[in-house]
Amino acid sequence: MEAELRASVLTPLARVEGSLSQLRSADLYAQLESAHETVRAFARGVYPRRLEQVGLAALREMSRLGDHVEVNVPDERFAPKVEAAAYFLCVEALTNVAKYARATATQVSIEVADRTLAVEIADNGIGGADLAKGTGLLGLQDRLDVLGGVLTVESSRQGTRVSGVIPL
Predict the structure, then answer these.
(1) Which residue in 44, 54, 65, 146 is a FRET match for 25, CA 20 to 30 A apart?
(2) Greatest Cα pair distance in the chain
(3) By residue range, what is the domain housing residue 84?
(4) 100-134: buried (b, 16+ CB within 10 Å) or exposed (e) per residue?
(5) Structurally, how many domains does the chain consist of?
């Protein structure tokens, strides 16, 4: 999907942007930036193909996870909006671990409990995660809020635990 999006929309927009830079039109440039933001917003809402095919088991297949990541997810399928929320929660948390945590061990756990999907990503890194900083975790909190779920983040020098509970 990303390649299709890039070929059909992003590459032509980049060409237009190059042409606009010669015109120095603030109005046209603002319209172009608006178009870019629309495409980015659309892409954020796209349901990943592999997630659609195999559900949360797609998390086991992510090559970027590395050797220090243990993934325990059910093979059971859930409503697409629930799977997407859980998937993006894991991807964002794992991205943060890779970028900031300096962790040597990370565990992803997803299980069904009391008519909810409990998602937890825990690492033994340096901590520092904060819901009040940055936009990634806030975006996840918004995504879970819409579904009636809850996001919690606990972080210390012994590591970080990002947990989400999503009603089924």
Answers:
(1) 44
(2) 60
(3) 55-167
(4) bbebeebbbebeeeeebbebbbbbbbbbebeeeee
(5) 2
Question: Using one digit for the tens of pLDDT, what is the confidence trace for 120-132?
Answer: 999 999 999 988 8
- Residue 50 domain-assigned? no
Whether residue 161 sits in one domain with residue 80? yes
| Lookup: tokens for 11 | 């590459």
- Helix (H/G/I), strand (E/B), else coil: 80: helix
| Residues 31, 56: Cα–Cα separation, whole Å | 37
Tokens 């059909």 correspond to 8
**One domain, residues 39 and 60:** no
Task: Please compute, for residue 145, the number of CA atoms within 13 A of its CA located in the half-sphere on the CB side.
Answer: 6
pLDDT at 3: 47
Using a 10 angstrom Cβ sphere, with 0-12 exposed, 13-18 middle and 19 or more buried, the burial of residue 142 is exposed
